From TrEMBL:
Taxon lineage: Bacteria, Pseudomonadati, Pseudomonadota, Gammaproteobacteria, Chromatiales
GO molecular function list: DNA binding
Cited InterPro entries: HI1420, Lambda_DNA-bd_dom_sf
Pfam families: dnstrm_HI1420
Protein name: Probable addiction module antidote protein
Length: 109
């Protein structure tokens, strides 16, 4: 099967957009991090963090700067990954971000 000229995969386009727009990357990751609370949605949050890391120079570069082995980072940011708090904080710091806490929004009766 031949490749179509000028066609870019969704993933490649997503990485390019996140690389070009830091505010978009922060908003994307912030929305995705909310899914980490739900075991059924956790994979999406981890994959979003992985995508932002790819946009930040690639998993190998992020792992090296964060002091984590590349293999460990790939495993941690996989759909079934379970990164430690230390890994999560190191990856976010490498990308110039940090973890924050906000009150949970609750409907008032």
């Amino acid at each position: 099967m031949s490749q179509l000229k000028g066609v870019v995969s969704h993933h490649e386009r997503e990485i390019a957009e996140l690389r070009a727009d830091r505010e978009l990357a922060v908003a994307y990751l912030k929305a995705a991090m909310e899914s980490l609370d739900d075991p059924d949605e956790r994979a999406a949050g981890l994959l979003a963090l992985r995508t932002v890391a790819e946009a930040h120079g690639g998993l190998g570069a992020v792992a090296a700067e964060a002091g984590i082995s590349r293999e460990s980072l790939y495993r941690s940011l996989s759909p079934k990954g379970n990164p430690t708090l230390k890994t999560l904080l190191a990856v976010l710091k490498t990308m110039g971000m940090r973890l924050s806490v906000e009150p949970e929004h609750q409907a008032h009766a």
